[in-house]
Specification:
It is found in: Cell membrane; Endoplasmic reticulum; Nucleus inner membrane. The chain is built from ten helices and no strands. The chain has about 375 residues and is an all-alpha fold. The chain folds into two domains: about 70 residues; about 220 residues, no CATH class. Helix 5 packs antiparallel against helix 8, helix 6 runs antiparallel to helix 7 and helix 9 packs antiparallel against helix 10.
Length: about 375
């Protein structure tokens, strides 16, 4: 009798020996199966490729249609502006001898005309426009307009995060230069970081303005001044006068970074609340000064801001006194003094103007009650 187990072992061994003796047979079966799978996969890819081509064709067609619509909207807005100017002049002429009914009609039309610029501004924030002088010099004639709200808000949010990260980095860097290390090379690296930071801010802010952000002109211009000031500090050679001003400059930078961090932290929260209430524009940004919308909960920042403004004045006066010293040979001393004086006058007058307008508004409001 045969043992069943031995038969099974014999068959298994025979199959193993056959597979070892004829490996090409298994390889052929495997290759045939793989080739069939590859052919099936290729057929699926071919069909998908046809769909991709059709989708891309439709995409290019829609782009051409969008481009034509953009040109049509831009031309229509330009015509509207021209006609409204002509109508405004005509209405002023009609005001000479109007009847009460005509006067009411004229006032109603003029009120509607005053609202049109804001509507046109919103429309144009989604339309391509010619870059300003600064963007044209830096980027050339490149369209920087983002075509949907999500892209605009994402770019604005990335700008805010960039400011926060660099503010913290500058805070740590200025503290290190002021209290830990005293090397001219490290100071130069810090000033180079300031130049790069403010150059980048000016470019990003110009792009945001093209996309509908409403930033006061001074808060953009003062970044150009800071960029120039940092560049001059970068070229200031090592010497007695540099060492005389170094600690004062680094301490001011440390304080400025601290105040900017406070402003970002509280302004971002305030803007979020105002947007939720529908009282703020989606593209409003945190700034390094004070604006009218900050009266709700941010007035405590005013003492910090005014102290920083007067510190800029103190820096300017210090540098002007240093420029009068006999040993002063560096042109950087006088140029830095002028820059700080410009910063003080611009920052102080702009912040004071916001406070004054708010005071007048409250006075008018109390009189009306």
């Amino acid at each position: 009798m045969r043992c069943p187990r031995s038969d099974r072992s014999y068959n298994c061994c025979t199959a193993d020996i056959y597979s070892c003796l004829c490996p090409h047979r298994n390889k052929m079966l495997f290759n045939q199966t793989s080739l069939a799978d590859c052919l099936q996969e290729w057929e699926g890819l071919e069909k998908d490729f046809q769909r991709v081509q059709e989708t891309h064709r439709l995409y290019k067609q829609k782009l051409e249609e969008v481009s034509k619509l953009q040109d049509s909207c831009s031309n229509a807005i330009a015509r509207q502006r021209k006609k409204l100017k002509e109508l405004t002049v005509s209405l002023e002429e009609c005001k000479e001898t109007p009847s009460p009914e005509e006067m009411n009609a004229i006032n109603g039309i003029q009120g509607s005309i005053k609202d049109r610029p804001n509507v046109f501004f919103e429309m144009e924030s989604f339309l391509p426009k010619k870059n300003g002088l600064y963007l044209s010099l830096v980027l050339g004639n490149v369209n920087v307009t983002l075509l949907n709200k999500h892209s605009k808000f994402a770019y604005k949010d990335e700008y805010e995060k960039f400011k926060l990260v660099l503010t913290v980095l500058l805070l740590v860097f200025s503290f290190t230069c002021r209290f830990v290390f005293s090397y001219r090379a490290l100071d130069a690296l810090f000033n180079f970081l300031l130049v790069w930071y403010y150059c980048t801010l000016t470019i990003r802010e110009s792009i945001l303005i093209s996309n509908g952000s409403r930033i006061k002109g001074w808060w953009v211009f003062h970044h150009y001044v800071f960029c120039f000031l940092s560049g001059v500090m970068l070229t200031w050679p090592e010497g007695i006068l540099y060492q005389m001003f170094r600690n004062q400059f680094l301490t001011y930078c440390l304080y400025q970074s601290f105040v900017q961090f406070l402003q970002y932290y509280y302004q971002s929260g305030c803007l979020y609340r105002l947007r939720a209430l529908g009282e703020s524009h989606n593209m409003d940004l945190t700034v390094e000064g004070f604006q009218s919308w900050m009266w709700r909960g941010l007035t405590f920042l005013l003492p910090f801001l005014f102290f920083g403004h007067f510190w800029q004045l103190y820096n300017g006066l210090t540098l002007f006194r240093m420029a009068q010293l006999p040993e002063c040979k560096e042109w950087q001393v006088f140029m830095c003094g002028c820059s700080y004086l410009v910063l003080f006058m611009g920052n102080f007058s702009t912040t004071l103007g916001v406070v004054y307008h708010k005071y007048i508004h409250n006075q008018d409001k109390s009189k009306s009650l």
